[in-house]
Amino acid sequence: MSQSDTDTVTGEAATGATRQSRSTQSADAASSAPSSPSASSATTNAAAATEPTATDHHRKHALHTNLKRGMESRHLQMISLGGVIGTGLFLSSGYTIQQAGPIGTILAYGIGALIVYLVMLTLGELSVAMPVTGSFHVYAERFIGPGTGFVIAIQYWLTWTVALGSEFTAAGLLMQRWFPHTPTWIWSAACIVLIFTANALSVRFFAEAEFIFASIKVFAICAFIAIGLLAIFGIIPIAGYEHAPMFGNLVRDGIFPNGFMPVFATILTVNFAFSGTELIGVTAGETRDPETAVPKAIHTTLWRLVLFFIGSIVVMCALIPWREAGVGESPFVLVFNSIGIPYAADIMNFVVLTAVLSASNSGLYASTRMVWSMGNEGMIPRWFAKTNRRGVPMLALCAAMAGGLLALLSSVIAASTVYLVLVALSGLSAVVVWIAIAYCQIVFRRRWIASGHAVDELKYRTPGYPYTSWGAFILCTASFLLVFFDKEQRFALVAELLFIVVCYAAYFVQTWWRKRHPAEPELQLP
User: Fold this and answer.
1) Which residues of 301-321 are buried (b: 16+ CB within 10 A; e: fewer)?
2) Which pLDDT does position 73 carry in this prediction?
3) pTM, 2 dp
4) Hey, what domains does the chain have and what are their CATH numbers?
């Protein structure tokens, strides 16, 4: 473990005071610009949310609530990929191809990658100016309003909590291939213990574990694309073809064999598949050099998404007739078996297992930091923000794991009712967060200019502003509303809108209660 991972937060803050001074100016300037009363009060001291300084350490309440900056650029890039590349690509991509056809699927993934990239560009400016853990709801609180900040926090927490339950179940089922006579719950429990331990040791340990898990997935995809291209051009043989397959299967039944409308439904699925890239914003508060690491991770996101997702789809569709893709078996396994790679199914089972572990690892981290951030901002009791000497918020971690276990329980005993609603809410929650990110950056930039500062003073600027920001906002909003035209997903939209109303109602009830029952003053450090 490197020295910076073992430094105390106060020492780390003291050495980073010079670097943070510019973030302080950035946030204070944005806060001082004219705005609505609720938003301006929320932005009064954004600098305090960037990184703890020596002064903050004495001014903060008695609980030790500081996180450690233990992540490097390589961790950030792999975490952003690890949060995206999951079982959807390895297992269910064949179903997506069947719905929209080869060209339609490629088009949907291309549009989805563009939407994600635009959102990441807007998030980059906010994350560099204010690198704070749990950034989404903090930005929403400061630049939209405290009620919206509360809603975004709950939405994002729910997204990963529901994912945790499904990933724990998937891990147990995958292990059944090698150990068919052991109960599934044993392997699910082993996954829970492993992931909890990785998150409990330190942020550095979590980052290294995620780096390993994500590296396995990336290597498998690169190998799949490379071997597939060799087969496409006839360099290595593949069953069913006496000559090089080339790319004829992509357009054999027309460009849109099922019509163009299925492409819209596929775009919605792709948006859900790409959710997780915003983890860059969550990790910014624990990254050693966010001014360098965050933009680097963002700029590599698009081409990697294009390479891994669209590259894999092209290889699948070129080698397997699209109507046969993913019928009862992973397209990856079908291709490897056709080429004659031994133990293809076992290899992919291992890769998918690492994908599940990676998603669980990232999900528990994101859920934990959202609970910590809500405690740190006073949305929930502040003792949820308490950290141990390693900078790990153990109470928040336990709360996040409890949420994942409840989601797992609901998937077993109430799969057709409670769990179905949770999954519906989880799917659209990520898109709601993206909409908020794009709008927050628009408001932030306006206040920055109104405060008399120049754009050149920002360490990282969203390219193509305001077109990029408004493009992200409009495209995300459109993809959210398009759910209404998909009968199978219309229930998700209704459930999500109702849940948003419930979240706002919960916030206003909480605010009313706190006004009626003010808390006792917290003990201050000398």
Assistant:
1) bbebbeebbbbbbbbbbbbbe
2) 65
3) 0.79
4) 73-514 (1.20.1740.10)
